Amino acid sequence: MRSDIVPGAVFPDYELSDHRGKRRKLSELQGGDPMILVLSRGSFCPKDRRQAEGLVQLHRELEVGYCRLVTISTDNITETNEYRSGIGLSSPMRGASSRKISTSPNIPTRSTTR
C-alpha cells in the first residue's frame, strides 16, 4: 500500500471523465468540502451494486453536511450511466475504464472475472 494514501491525507488529484463525459479533477469535484471517494469494480460486481444502493441513501445525508460523494468505477461511460440510473445515484460517478487508478503504483487491487 502506498504510504501517502492514509486517512486524512490528500488523495492523488486524478483527472477522469465524469458520467457526462466531461474531464474533471477530483479537486474540482471536492471544492472546499469533505469528500468520500469510493473505488468500484463496476456494475458487473454484485457486492459493489449492493454497496452503491446503500450509498444512495447515505448521499442524501452527506449533502446536508456539505460532504461530497464520488465514485470511480472501471465501467465505460455507457455502463456508468446505466449503473447510476439503475440504482438512482445522483452523485458524480467517474469512469476509469483505462484502469488508470488500479494501475497506479502500490494501490492494491483484486482480480475479478466478468
By DSSP, the count of extended strands is 5
Computed Rg: 14 Å
Query: What would the average pLDDT be, to the nearest integer?
Result: 76
Percent of residues in helices comes to 25-40%
Succession of helices and strands: EEHEHEHE
| Spatial arrangement of strands, main beta sheet | 2-1-5-4-3
Structural class: alpha/beta
Spans of at least 5 consecutive residues with low confidence: 105-114
Number of DSSP helical runs: 3
> Biggest sheet: strands, sense, closure?
5 strands, mixed
Query: Could you tell me how far the N terminus lies from the C terminus, measured between alpha carbons in angstroms?
Result: 25 Å
Taken as a percent bin, the fraction of beta residues is 15-25%
Task: List the defining traits of the structure above.
single chain; 114 residues; alpha/beta; five-stranded mixed sheet; 3 helices; 5 strands; globular
